[in-house]
Design brief:
Layout lengths: L1 E10 L4 E3 H4 L7 H8 L3 E3 L6 H17 L10 E5 L10 H9 L5 E5 L5 H15 L4 E9 L17 E11 L5 E5 L7 E2 L7 E2 L1 H23 L8 E4 L4 H11 L10 H4 L6 H11 L8 E8 L3 E8 L1
Helix pairs in contact: 3-4, 6-7
The structure holds oxa(dethia)-CoA.
Oxa(dethia)-CoA binds next to helix 2 and helix 6.
Length: 309
Amino acid sequence: MTGKIIGTGSYLPELVWNNHKLTEWLDTNDEWIRERTGIGQRHISKDLGAGKMALEAAKKAMEDAGKAGLRAEDLDAIFVCTVTPDIMVPSIACEIQKTLGAVNAFAYDINAACSGFVFAYNMAVAYMETGLIKNALIVGSEQLSSMMDWNDRGSCILFGDGAGALVVTACEQKGASVMHSDGASGEALQCVTGGKLSMDGQKVFRFALKRVPEVVEELLAKMEMEKDQVDLFLLHQANMRIIEAVIKRLGLEPEKVPSNIERMGNTSSASLPILLDELNREGKLRTGMKLVMAGFGAGLTWGAGFIMV
Ligand code: UT7
């Protein structure tokens, strides 16, 4: 059993900061940022926190799922992934459940940093396999600008704000999930509540280059599937150099690995659902397509999941 996409949505704050904007106070430049990261701009939310952005993305995903006949009452579970919750209790997921009127869904938030969306999706599939749920709404929402040290040019240039949401339903196609954590290396990327993020960029870079290809191979082996049977590989949008290196190591066709990091920066747990929503709206997701998603980030955490269109 695995999940099948029946709706996508996203919310991106109107305010956009390009790389030139950052040079107003930071000793950096557009060329360096583009060359080292592939990022040209990022959305910044001044007014909406992760909760409101999550709700906006969720509403759009439900509108999209409505075209397939799914109503809020049909949802069995709502999961919100975030490392920047603006409300702790009740959870953002419960707030969404209330606003949507998803009276039959249980709801909670999870934090697995940039792996959050893949972890939440894999968790939804595990619930589907037990028969506990059939339909789930999964949202990734981040106001990362609120945890940036805007004077740390080694980290603040990377991140952006936004939310993405996905409605999935159980389908009989064979699936597989892979998830890993290495808490002992957690100091590579950390932030205490209310504090500012600190990162050892090179350590995270090396970790991603090793673990992302590994986890994709592990998933495909579990699925007994060859790479050429996968229609799209969706990688967490952290750095274009990481994406390109993974493409090379795995010998993937670059056109099968879409990216929007140039326009979004790294939106942590929101990066994959924002990318999925873009692909959906551009008509690039066609029924029957097989997608592999891979996430990695703070924890350290990394994982991969399989999803059908
Ligand atoms: O979701 C996971 C989130 N985290 C990541 O994905 C982070 C992965 N790591 C990276 O993306 C890269 O390590 C960075 C983009 C953060 C940094 O790139 P790098 O190639 O590893 O640069 P570096 O830290 O080795 O720094 C090289 C030089 C240094 O100068 P010196 O010591 O050689 O004179 C830095 O001070 O570049 C300097 N530098 C900058 N220069 C201009 C660092 N940041 C900047 C900057 N603008 N923004």
